[in-house]
Amino acid sequence: MSLNFELIHDDMEPKGAILLFHGLTGSPFELKKYGQFLYKNGYDIYADCIPGHGDNFEDIYTVTYQDWLNFAYSGFEKLKSKYENVFVSGLCLGAVLAIAVGLKYKEQVSGVISLSTTLFLDGWRLPWYKCLIPIGISTILRFYYNYPECEPHGIKNEKTRSVVKKLLAKGDVGMNDFPMTGFYELLKLSSYVRKNLYEFNVPILLIHSQEDDLTSTKSAKTVYSKISSTDKEMIILNDSYHMVLYDNEKEFVFNKAIEFINSHISIEYATIAGKPSDDIDKGTLNSILK
Amino acid sequence: MPVIILKYFFCFIAIFLALLLTLRVLFDNIFKNNNKLSPVVALIGGLFLLYTLIGLILSLVYPNILNKFIMFLFSLSPFIIGKLVSYKRLRLYSIIQVLCVIFSIGFVLIF
Question: What is the complex's ipTM, to 2 decimals?
Fold first, then answer.
């Protein structure tokens, strides 16, 4: 069920590498189309399963946010030893991990694309008793409560939702529930990231949906307002829920991501309208350098 | 008089809490595989909150410092145990939690 994937160019020199992180209780499957799109645009893609999300469901109860951080850091270090340009992108928990990587390797990360960043659990889908979540996760109850994966599954597009629903029922794409221990570790990771946001100075693109059912735009706005990066952009989507990579505006998200990545790669890999950098005239090169 | 009412209220919540916790631990598979039972677990969360709040108020009411301290520990036990618990020792900590709640009822009724 881990569905790890790597998309590596054998036929040409890639422009760089992109490390992708999936969301809480998800799997690399949810990043597949996004990864393929980025791959087609000349980047090598790496998407591994986050600890606790593999074949053994019980792993999620024993994993800590430190394991997630170590996994993300080692994944980045591995890529950095091979590639000049390494971008990090993620969805939900993966977005928080991507920011954490940006915090630790601020000099080495070429850019961060953070999708549906989950720093707070305050989306509209959470049940009426969501005010009890802090109690639940601070007590023994976090091992006894799995928040059920339910409609709308983070997807506004009804066709896609029904497909995902079927896949979830088969257990092919991720877990059917959100274990509270997962929330507990996610919130600890979020707290760590929030405390250190002012140190973050890497170029970042934040994409968040106005109608996100799991986490409101407060998360993206917090990141945007607290980081020290001068090169930052936040896009609020109007026709999607949490799973922005599968929803109505997925093409827009893909295009914005590649636009951001292409504009932040080192100059020797820069292309204009698909032409390699050798073909760029001096004036254009200067404007890029500026 | 209000203290007696508070004590009985505390006991009522603690009994209910111990009962629900025991059921949740004993029937783990039934609860895990039935999403409709999720609000029951949320109810336990609510009871934990009430248990802690009333316990803290009672710890302020006790004149004796030792009793104050013991009541304080009882009322914070859900969070202390929550901090210590691990998945490997979940059963053990669950039993400790239920016992803590039961002992706190005895403590409140005696003192």
Answer: 0.90
DSSP, res A149: P
* pTM of the shown model: 0.85
**Cα–Cα distance, A148 to A135 (Å, whole number):** 18
Q: What percent of chain A has pLDDT over 70?
A: 88
Q: Does B22 touch chain A (CB under 8 A)?
A: no
Q: Is the pLDDT of residue A284 over 70?
A: no
CA distances from B44 to A2, A142, B97, B107 (A): 34, 11, 12, 21
For residues A287 and B6, give the distance between their C-alpha atoms in angstroms, rounded to a whole number: 74
| Nearest chain B Cα distance for residue A185, angstroms | 13
**DSSP conformational letter for A283:** H
Q: CA of B8, closest CA in chain A: separation in Å?
A: 23
Q: How many CB atoms sit inside 10 A of residue A254's CB? A: 19
Average of per-residue pLDDT across A58-77: 93
| Residue A239 burial (CB count, 10 A) | 13
